[in-house]
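Record N-acetyltransferase, 215 aa.
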Amino acid sequence: MTATRPEKSALVGRYVRLDPYTPADLPALWRALGHPEVFAGGYGGGPEGLPADEAAYAEWAPRYFPHERGITFVVRVASGPHTGEVVGASSMADFDEAKESAHIGWTAYDPRVWGTQVNVEAKLLMLGLLFDHGFGRVKLQADAINERSRAAIQKIGASFEGITRRDQRRADGSWRDAAIFSVLVDEWPEVRAGLERRLEDWGERPVLYRSVPSA
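=>
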């Protein structure tokens, strides 16, 4: 099958809804992601990459998101008491139709939904979209020192491929190594089943915010 780039359209699940990014989403994204703990693990270049305020974020985020060369999704709660509220963002980009490869990344969530069904269903929807469009390999990666993100990627069912050394510069000027993972189309049925089993454990319970300790 020849891979084709997906159109920019919404992906709707039981727990979350992924809408293509628009500039109107920036205030809500700042409220969800403008926290030191979000940037601590390497998102946005690491701790030094955290914008100073909402205005600085509004300038930074459109440059960071690969929405022009890819698709950036704003993640919203789809049901329950927080319906419609923005809780994160994730993107797909680096499309290579000839090699049938793509990259899911630039992902961050409000700390109040860490460990919930949000990332599980978001990845289920995004991986499904890419494999349905003929892609054969989807890359995911994290800063090599970010154990929390690496564990989350492995829990999705992605296979660890290795470390790309001196992959990109952090906001503080240091160089990060990248831990590279991937899911292949032949592995997708098993990975999909695993994600679906994890969501079954949540049943009909909607996304509920977790308490986050004060700094």
